[in-house]
Predict the 3D structure of the following.
Amino acid sequence: MINRTMMQYFEWYLPENALHWKRAAAQAAALSEAGINMVWLPPAYKGAAGAASVGYDVYDMYDLGEFDQKGSAATKYGTKEEYLAAVKALQENGIEVLCDVVLNHRMGADGAERVTVTEGLGTDRNRDITGKHQITAWTKFHFPGRAGVYSDFCWNASHFSGTDWDESAKRNGIFRFDGKNWNRETDTENGNYDYLMGADLDTDNREVIQETHGWGKWYQDTVHMDGFRMDAVKHISFDFCRDWIAAMREYNAGKKELFVVGEYWSKELGKLTHYLDVTGHSLSLFDVPLHFKFLQAATSDGNFDMARLYEGTLTGADPAHAVTFVDNHDTQPGQALCSFIPAWFKPIAYALILLRAAGTPCVFYGDYYGIPHDGVAPVQGLARMIKIRERFAFGAEHLFFDDGSLVGFTREGDAEHPDSGAAVLLTDSIGGRKRMYLGERLAGRRMTDALQNVSETVEIGADGWGEFAVKGGSVSVYVTGPAWEYLYTRL
Ligand code: CA
């Protein structure tokens, strides 16, 4: 049995120097050695902003840094050859690769056309504020720089449900195309949240279904990825997404099942569990509620009720379908959904996602390497906790979330992993001590804080219990003596 540990291998402000794929290839062995066995790579196709695009302003999904479009052949991250080489290097080092798939919208059209629309209210898209009228919409995509290579499919207004820019009037609005409805099976924020940005794909259109499925198969044949990270799923027909994933798995039949995680950005657990229900639990979701619990705990001056940390989270409700994370490219400073977890709480949050048995953790590149753009330093002790997850965080789990501020959990360890077992104690408030049960397997063993926040050594009693200490506003991760030695000779 292995513990899966994912890394989101990018942050928003990576330098625009087309070197990221080369970096990923060069770092593949080091990442594997560090204990990472799955990476999520950023969108690899050409965005409207060309070499400056992070990848979510999708222009041409068949251009993986190969065609001279939007000012260059390479994307922000490099060329197609470098991308494929990076994926190969990662996989050769035992790391599974998730590709970022954006199926909601297109941007940077090659041409505009006159379209009849109805304008809706921004805050309630079910309410029309105009009658039918014409606008000029950027909806014609024919990719002259690619000239039909891989696919000759051209997009026009018939493939989209709406847009937010009228080129004639030079104004923004929520414009729904005549004869189209916003898809009802999407999030209910703003009345209906089918529309997010750009030219919104009409996922009921047969040609759109055919084209996106065809592209997904081409993408698999080209990249041989191990799975997908699905962008903005709350803005896309739930059925369409479920069917696309099923089609991709069917195409990949006979090989290991594709791992899929969706980004449903909502702190409401009920919306996440509803999504999992209607998509037949065919994918995992990022545990957005847990991220916001971390934020609340980190910004409540020690008054957050830590005993209720997992209440209303996906990790609490459906751990098998929860991908846990602390921060990402959207929550980092300067970004749209900025809700960056304060530095003091980061090691606590990482101990919670990396060392508990529940959920699949995703480590953020910006937390691991730091974010030079904003002077953010790497998270203290993160590398060590990833290693502890890889080698020592095994066996039965015991939870001690029985206090408003001082909480912890233990892992008994197992026979398969020598010297495994861990005791984690943390607090959002003042320090203290707590007795926790580790199991009789570790009776008589001495354990030490791998993060070195506390220096005392704890001896586990014959009954399997030990008394652990933690300093205020911190976390201590106790491991066995040989495990401590292993970590200290390597990290
Ligand atoms: Ca949509």
Summary: Residues 206-223 form the longest helix (18 residues). DSSP finds eleven helices and 25 strands in the chain. The longest strand covers residues 111-121.
